[in-house]
Amino acid sequence: MDDFPQVLTIEEASKYLRIPLSTLYKLAQDGKIPCQKVGRHWRFRKERIDNWLDDTIAKSKKQTRIDDEEQHGC
Question: Angle 26-8-31 (CA atoms, 0-180°, nearest 5)?
């Protein structure tokens, strides 16, 4: 069951992603994670976070494949 709302606060997003709040603040401030600042508060759309995670995992797998090919001369 999904206990998270569609729009997450930074605290909820931190719990959802299982990363420290300080790390999430840094990602948000650096524009490395999809989010929106509303006044003084960060908000995260759960669907966009899920898509970002999928993209990040796909890029990581692709880079690992490239690194393996370069290492083995393929």
Answer: 30
CB 43 within 8 A of CB 9: yes
Helices (H) and strands (E) in the chain, counts: 3, 3
In this predicted structure, what is the pLDDT of residue 6?
A: 97
Q: 25 and 11 in contact (C-beta within 8 Å)?
A: no
In this prediction, residue 48 carries a pLDDT of 98
Q: Average pLDDT for consecutive 10-residue bins of the chain (74 residues)?
A: 86 97 98 97 98 91 73 68
Domains annotated for the chain, with CATH where assigned, are 7-72 (1.10.10)
Q: Which two tokens stand for residue 8?
A: 């997450």
Angle, alpha carbons 5-49-18 (nearest 5°): 80
* Phi, psi angles (nearest 5°) of residue 8: -105, 145
